[in-house]
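Researcher: Good morning. I'm working through a list of sequences from a screen, and I'd like to move beyond sequence-only analysis. For each chain I'm collecting a predicted structure so we can compare shapes side by side. This is the next one on the list. No need for commentary yet; just the structure.
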Amino acid sequence: MQFTFLEKYQPQLLAVLRIMTGLLFLEHGAVKLLHFPISMELPPGGIGILLTVAGAMELIGGALITVGVLTRLTAFLLSGEMAVGYFLGHAMQKGFWPVVNGGEAAILFCFIFLYIAAAGPGAWAVEKR
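Model: Good morning. Structure tokens for this chain:
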């Protein structure tokens, strides 16, 4: 028996993945820039600037991914941001292993965005495929 009954819903399920990932990513940007729903204090100096740029990418990119505008390009850029974020913010600080350095979310975001960049927005996107 093959487990194929969900195949006909692939565009809709891709859209659900895109929308939920975009909303979660947008939330990371909101924490960094808008201090909502919790406040994140940005450190002064270079790291503060990097986190501000990352927050802007997360807030704007998360919104674009959620509604499905410039999806492939945005997802590709955000995938790269998460790869850099993992290595700079997690691996270099606390060691390579994600379970030790708290970088699981960064890795998942990286590869989900890479998949969305390849697969496109799915259903319910503002842009046309």
